[in-house]
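[Q] Does anyone have a clean structure-token version of this?
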Amino acid sequence: MLGGIRFDMIEMILQYEFMQRAVIAGVIIGLISPMVGVFLVVRRLSLIADALAHVTLSGVAAGLLLQKSFPALQSVNPLYFGMGFSLTASVFVEQLRRLYRSYQELAIPIILSGGIGLGVVLISAGDGFNVDVAGYLFGSILAVGSSELHAIFGVGILVLIMIALFYKELFALSFDEESAVLTGIPRRWINLLFSLVVAMVITASIRVVGILLVSGLITLPVAASLQIANSFKQALFFSVLFGQIAVFCGLAAAFYLDWASGGTIILVSVAILLLVVAVKRLVDLWKRWSATGQMTR
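[A] Here you go.
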């Protein structure tokens, strides 16, 4: 009975074309976001996702403002402007990290502040498209069109190719950058390529989870996986698994409860993290109790 109910629920969701697109987009985003997030978290650069997301907001606002001023640009998706801004910002991040070698984390708040400031100015200058901006800020399952799905698919392929080709280099740079450089790994170009990939992942994720929440889908599944993983590959696997669960459950709940898809997916991610932490605590307590009981015997 329960299996039939679940099947009926899934069938009901997938009978709508917009939900089919949302689910496909969600599967791709739920795959590539945690994969990129694992490397970001290990390198202690998880906040770069927030910085690039806010720069993307500036690009989207610029695109909407240009569309308002020049009707000929109406056919251009504002996300392409956002991706251009985000890719440019990712290059600046790497330049700033090289400039402040002893304080590389400064690159993130510099780009974050600039992105927020520019975004606020552009949004205020383009008063009249606030409703459009809300969809980009918080995500919307209704907003994933065919062209955007194709773009998300393309980004997903690029990310998978990049990680497959440069997995060893990214792994080495993530754990011991200086030793990796000594072995001949081109740190500058690998870091730049990875930053560009992060920018594309963030832009591709915006329609599903929104600009303000995209960093959550990148980091929360990773945070949960690190609680139980015993190796980097396990962390990668569990991150993707938790990301997929969050996307599927979040989209289903958003559909039936009429909630914002982005917020719902992030809440599911938080719930997964809390559940994993609680289960791990219980397992640790049980092991200690068992060990204590054996010693007393």
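[Q] Thanks! Anything notable?
[A] The chain has twelve helices and no strands.
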